[in-house]
Design brief:
This protein is an alpha/beta fold. About 45% of the residues lie in helices and about 15% in strands.
């Protein structure tokens, strides 16, 4: 049996529930770049909005098809109403199902939004607003995409610029950001990326 055949039989099955198209395509892009562990079988599901993430998590959890389920979303701007509601709902879900797990171990976010992480592939960017209109000049500066509105064509262009090399740059840049949501920008996504790289995932989702 080859090493790859052996790995395919012993992979941990990981589901990442993404808030929307930007998050979904970003994670899929990193997966295609081959920066994550071969010992993981990574699946991605688009919840279509932050309001749908909790219900998507419930449905996927009860399917019992994954060893661990993560969430990747935006926290948006203060007072983080939808994001905090998501955390509260998950906390109650874990209590009801007697799961001993800190909600912060499965929710990974970018503040103000995922573009903060994407642009960090190119420079130590610090977004302070979630508005696409107000961020369009800085997005154009680093990607060449004008008047960004997250269209399919625009996303494809931006994600085509991502490489294994600037993935390493991104990690250095987001490490400098706050990991709480008191400040914008902030993100805790580096922890998720490092777990996916090493395959060292041992959280009691079940």
């Amino acid at each position: 049996m080859s090493k790859l055949d052996f790995l395919s039989l012993n992979k941990k099955s990981v589901l990442i529930i993404c808030e929307g198209e930007e998050e979904e395509e970003y994670i899929l892009t990193l997966t295609k770049l081959g920066v994550f562990s071969l010992g993981l079988d990574i699946h991605v599901k688009n919840a279509r909005s932050i309001d749908n993430i909790y219900f998507t998590f419930q449905a996927m959890y009860h399917l019992d098809s994954y060893d661990i389920i993560f969430i990747f979303c935006d926290s948006e701007m203060y007072p983080f109403t939808q994001f905090n509601l998501l955390k509260e709902n998950l906390l109650n879900f874990f209590k009801d199902n007697e799961i001993k797990l800190d909600v912060n171990e499965i929710i990974y976010y970018a503040s103000p939004n995922t573009m903060q992480i994407v642009l960090s592939h190119f420079d130590a960017v610090r977004l302070t607003d979630s508005s696409k209109e107000r961020n369009e000049k800085i997005i154009e500066k680093y990607t060449g995409v004008k008047e960004y509105r997250a269209t399919g064509k625009q996303r494809k262009k931006i994600y085509s610029l991502l490489t294994r090399e600037n993935y390493e740059i991104m990690k250095v840049n987001i490490k400098k950001l706050d990991i709480g949501r008191v400040e914008t920008p902030s993100t805790n996504a580096l922890k998720l990326f490092l777990m996916l790289e090493t395959g060292d995932i041992d959280l009691p989702n079940k």
